[in-house]
TrEMBL record:
Organism: Aedes albopictus
Entry keywords, A to Z: Metal-binding, Zinc, Zinc-finger
Protein name per UniProt: RING-type domain-containing protein
Boundaries of every RING-type domain copy: 201-239
Domain of life: Eukaryota
Amino acid sequence: MQTSAALRPVDQCRHRFRCLHCSDTNIFCDCYANCHKDHPRQPLVTDEYLLNQYGSKSDYAEYSEISVFNCPYCDKQKLSVGTLYDHITLEHLDVPFDVRCPICVCFGSNNSLIKNIHLSKHIVDDHSVTMEQYHEQILIYDTHCNDERELLIFLASTLPPTYHAGGEEYEIEPEIAAARSTPQTHQVASSNAPRTIASTCSICLDMIVSARVLPCQHRFHAACIELWMRQSATCPVCRKPT
């Protein structure tokens, strides 16, 4: 006898979720259409999905932005860790209720509700690394090239280092912050080219069309790096003197 969709075990379903709001930490699936129907939910991303959708690149700079997270406040979907952080700090900074972190839920590291702190602080505290740590992880992949899954999870779940310095948040120049939400003359908003580490300015996180190249060979928008150098005389990526 064939198992009906309504009775199929959750572990056998292709799309599985966890609720981002309530205290129930059980996994549920599309077979249970009424389960948490009014709550934002986070899909559990499988290794197979990660590798099929974002893997099989010859160099880490070719990896597209991994957009697999849902907002726990409004259920906006398919956000990367960077766009999730931008979204909740711009749209939901004053939301009072506790939620689950979609990054933790997605990769199974923690299913608890976040208590007493905003999700944006949790992301900085738990899902960010220093610039040195970021490039150390990339170097490990470049050296060994034996676990693409680990690289994908790292890139998917780590806030880009330009959001903080030394593990602490810092205030970005208003002109740079505006570049994240306002089209600039050096950007092509209608471009269908994928955003990759190599093609994205690591200061404003937008596509590079015309770049200024530093002696260390890292590339940025000219306006962005000029603003950066008002605060620091080192490259934002490798910290070498400019």
